[in-house]
Amino acid sequence: MGKAGRFACIFTPMAMTIASLICLVVVLSGQAYQKSELSRGLYFFKADTTAFKADPDTILDKLPEGASPDVVKAFQGAASGGNMRDIYQVGLWNYCEADLKDGKEENWHCTDRQNYFWFNPFAVWKLENTSVQAAFPEDFQNGIDTYHKVSRWMFISYMIALVLTIAEVLLGISAIFSRWGSLITTIVSTAQTLFIIAAAATSTALYGTLISVFRTVLDPYQIEASWSSKMLSVLWIGVAFSIGSGFFWLISVCCCSGKSGHKKVVVEKTPYTYERVASPYMGASANAHNSHQMHPIGHGGSGQAYEPYRGQHV
């Protein structure tokens, strides 16, 4: 198999690595660009306060048993003060907010992108470090605190996965020329797969828990929470591509050497080796010489065998 065959062997893992990189970039772009409809449609978490804001003054009459009137009053104050928007969508770097009018989202505003971002609803609704914050159930406080701590590790996992994916693409070019390049690329691919799985699993578990906390605590106040199935689909498809690329990089180490099977072997002649050749000096006489017969040495036609130690004279 020559270089063309080697290239064909590398094409599959390289294509899957690039596909994984594209999926990862799409996930990281969620909520990062305010004017992009694609970016706004990708989010890990969404809080919808539309139902609460539609009738905030009469919600006290509809509260189920166990709900806190103080929390309702806090939300009413946030809504009347303009600190509560209809929709909040959370990405890796920031969050975006918008109003809902006639079923259409408008007046989008996205916060600045920042590292280790986490969505703090108390700060967003201007309730942080106030007496009203203490009115929220303990489960809600604990859920937000856990989300804050784990989100830092999640962000780091995504950044490492991104760097390793780019490195995998670049190193994959060297894999075309040798299996040593494939080996190094396979090692990087293994690390990349571990980190992208960790990032995806952490995101799914973390925001799944946050949504559960929001629904448990804030559902009585008609504040809904959800996530984007599109975002999760792209994320886990990227994980699948990453696992597949690692598998095929490993195959390229064991197979597809890139050396041609019809390569001519040249043996260098060493000095003092025997090689039979025809002698140009003997010519046709060579055959005659080879056919010359040896005759026993004796005395003429006596018919007696030659005895070298027998005395000739007595």
UniProtKB/TrEMBL annotation:
One of its GO terms (biological process) is fungal-type cell wall organization. Keywords: Membrane, Transmembrane, Transmembrane helix. PANTHER family: CELL MEMBRANE PROTEIN YLR413W-RELATED, INTEGRAL MEMBRANE PROTEIN (AFU_ORTHOLOGUE AFUA_6G07470). Pfam families: SUR7. GO terms for cellular component: cell cortex of cell tip; plasma membrane. This is Integral membrane protein-like protein. The chain crosses the membrane at residues 155-181, 193-214, 234-255. InterPro entries: SUR7/Rim9-like_fungi, SUR7_domain.
